[in-house]
Records
---
Amino acid sequence: MPAGYAGKLKALEELVPIVRDLRRQGKRVVFTNGCFDLLHHGHVRYLDQAKALGDVLVVAINSDASVRALKGPDRPVMSHAERSEVIAALAAVDYVLIFEELDPEKLIRALEPDLLVKGGDWPVDQVVGRQIVEGRGGRVCTLPYVEGASSSQLLRRIREGKG
């Protein structure tokens, strides 16, 4: 990963004290997660909107093994190293971490974000970590889903030759 982006990639143990310090400084920490298998305009809009809700955006990316478990044996298309580099290159993203679990509950519990954000295809009551965030006075919100903008749909179009 290029040096300019490498500083954004953190292990959970590194990120916890950083986030605590940012919150002590009065910064509003926004957390989101996903596979981000093939970056597309829906992801970029979503991450820009998520960043606009706070001061610091933390993006957790599913590991290759967890993407396979969630999406099937043909996924991910890009490795978590590649996906994290692409996400880290976005100006809206402050920190990136990779997680092995199928859901981000452990990360949310450890980082205690002020705001938990998911895409509009997730009903708020089904967002993993909602009770943790709301229980400590934070907020959970969903952002508008960009119709037709998903890695699965993009892959289907490519496979059908409709690129």
Note: The helical segments are 3-6, 12-24, 41-52, 64-71, 80-88, 105-111, 130-135, 151-159.
---
Amino acid sequence: MTKRRNSRLSILLLAGLALGIPAAAAAEDASVAARLGERGIKYEVDADGDYKATYNYSKEGRTQLVFVGGKAEAVGGLSIREVFSPAGRVEKDGINGSKALELMSASANMKLGSWEIRGDVLYFVIKILDDASAAQIEAAMDIAAETADDQELELSGDRDDL
């Protein structure tokens, strides 16, 4: 089994080199894919290289997008990867100064994750060590998706855009 895994990793590394992707990045991507697969998480890779999963809250008749960043970033000698889930659109959902302050205050009470605005989208973002286990990544995904969907309900009522 180890031989087969090493063989697949070598093929991925070679493919990454052929496409001009650094070998380390190809290995990181393979590692994320393997950890998501280990937990049975169905995903697709989006145009940015992020791993996108759709959570289905069948009881509530809702879905929620959640992403695992396709690229880790080095910060102070640590390799960090983001898990993030969209909760609203700034203009469409009326996220103004007072709402932004409310979200910042809420972030202070979060044990894991915080609210961020990127472009016109409000996201709940969790930053984890890149070597987090498959179970830890899944837990971060669960927290991000649930937190973002709860906020989307508060912002938009029954609308389920994200």
Note: Confidence is low (pLDDT under 50) at residues 1-28.
---
Amino acid sequence: MSSSDRYQELLGLVTVIVTVIVSESGEPAGFDAARWLDDWLHHPVPALGKKLPIDYLDSDAGCELLVQLLRQMQSGAYA
């Protein structure tokens, strides 16, 4: 699977996750989950040792780590 395919797969997953989070905690009208994901992928994340999430899209293990991190964000678990 290419980085582009992984990005699209992750984009679909996070769109659902973020939409649910926003719906549960506030007003989802006008929220752009795809834009949020693009921003998140290109900024350092403390839970990843301040590395960029996009750098993890080149392997299955990296994608699994990102999905796990997003699920922790959804549940409110400290990552």
Note: Residues 70 and 76 are 10 Å apart (CA to CA).
